[in-house]
Design a protein that fits this description.
It is elongated, with a radius of gyration of 23 Å. By secondary structure, the protein is α+β, with helices and mostly antiparallel strands. The chain is built from eight helices and 20 strands. The chain has two domains: 184 residues, DNA ligase/mRNA capping enzyme (D-amino Acid Aminotransferase, Chain A, domain 1, 2-Layer Sandwich); 151 residues, Beta Barrel (OB fold (Dihydrolipoamide Acetyltransferase, E2P)).
Length: 364
């Protein structure tokens, strides 16, 4: 029987602007935070929010039975490695159906990058300092094979700074800094995380309503963002969300006044209308059909607007503008009424050099 009770809210990190000296450092992985637990012949996978993911990742469960002791709990990140980089977008497909899990495990295999050990045998390690937990984890990982992977760690501030710049090209978020004497504190933000943040001006081509929105009290869910590529197509780039409740109603009413439908004369000329997108080959947001679920339905606007957003990383597919997108949700900064949509091009984006993730994890 495991010495700790699951599900358990993992220990978290709070954001800081720069890498602090004097701590230990790990890469910040871009995947799904998860606890992987073995208790005899039973293996469980729990998400950060306490969702039972058991059965969705059979390759991880088989690896746990093969390489972990009979009682063991790992804290880590479920990731998908595609080529030499991480691909966060494919994770959603892995959570689609337990009945399809075996086939998806073959087609889109996942890995668990472990960075903490919470229980070993009949002993809970939650009260032990990080350095003790890490030493035990490294010993445990000596005989591992993929898809179980050990996250690298360094005590060098200079190495961590190098990781922060280089590892971004492999699809990683940034760096996590941890105190070597810190116990494991479930649910508390005891670690520090340093992420990349950049700004760009983007075209707002449409919006979605929030799931709580009603006709009487409309609420904005997200802005739909794009940039024009070299051929003149407006490529969908991602979304901007997270507006305060006090602003979502006003924004929804403002944008709804600009909404156009397929019965409006301006519809056919919109870059994301089926007519225009079919001609230009533009990547468009999902949910453009009237049969989409209300939460996913796209509402196009004319005229299109320009705003400035913060973003962390652009996932780029070489030679494929339709594959270029924000890795995560952007943050709204301000409207840019002085800019025209046509002036917002791809060359604003900062694309980082590629880095071989397999080399970093010694998978080559």
């Amino acid at each position: 029987m495991l010495p700790i009770r699951l599900p358990l809210e993992p220990m978290l990190a709070r954001s800081v602007a720069t890498i602090p000296p004097g701590l230990v450092y790990e890469p910040k992985w871009d995947g799904w935070r998860a606890l992987l637990a073995r208790d005899g012949d039973r293996v469980e996978v729990w998400s950060r929010h306490g969702t039972d993911l058991s059965g969705f990742f059979p390759e991880l469960e088989q690896a746990a039975l093969a390489y972990l002791p009979e009682q063991c709990v790992l804290d880590g990140e479920i990731v998908i490695i595609r080529g030499n980089t991480l691909d966060y977008t494919l994770l959603a497909a892995r959570h689609s159906s337990r009945s399809r899990a075996a086939r998806l495990a073959r087609e889109i295999p996942a890995s668990l990058v472990a960075f903490d050990l919470l229980a070993f045998g009949e002993t809970s390690l939650l009260d032990e300092p990080w350095r003790v937990r890490r030493e035990l984890l490294e010993t445990l990982a000596e005989d591992w094979q993929p898809p179980l992977l050990l996250s690298p760690v360094t005590r060098s501030f200079e190495v961590a700074q190098g990781w922060f710049e280089a590892f971004e090209g492999a699809g990683l978020d940034g760096v996590v800094a941890k105190g070597p004497e810190l116990s494991y504190q479930p649910g508390r933000r005891g670690h520090l995380k340093i992420k990349h943040r950049r700004t760009t001006d983007v075209v707002v081509g449409g919006f979605r309503y929030d799931r709580t929105s009603t006709p009487e009290h409309p609420q904005l869910g997200s802005l739909l963002l794009g940039l024009f590529d070299d051929s003149g197509a407006l490529q969908f780039l991602g979304v901007c969300a997270g507006f305060p409740g006090s602003a979502r109603g006003d924004l929804a009413r403002t944008l709804s006044a600009l909404e156009i439908t397929d019965s409006d004369p301006q519809w056919a000329a919109h870059p994301w209308s089926p007519e225009q997108a079919g001609r230009t080959g533009a990547r468009v947001p999902e949910g453009l059909t009237r049969w989409s679920q209300p939460r996913e339905q796209v509402h196009l606007i004319s005229p299109m607007l320009v705003c400035e957003v913060d973003y962390d990383y652009v996932h780029a597919v070489p030679g494929d503008p339709q594959g270029t997108r924000f890795r995560s949700t952007a943050d709204f900064r301000r409207w840019r009424p002085e800019r025209t949509p046509e002036s917002c091009h791809w060359d604003q984006l900062e694309l980082v050099p590629e880095f071989d993730l397999r080399e970093m994890l010694d998978l080559s």
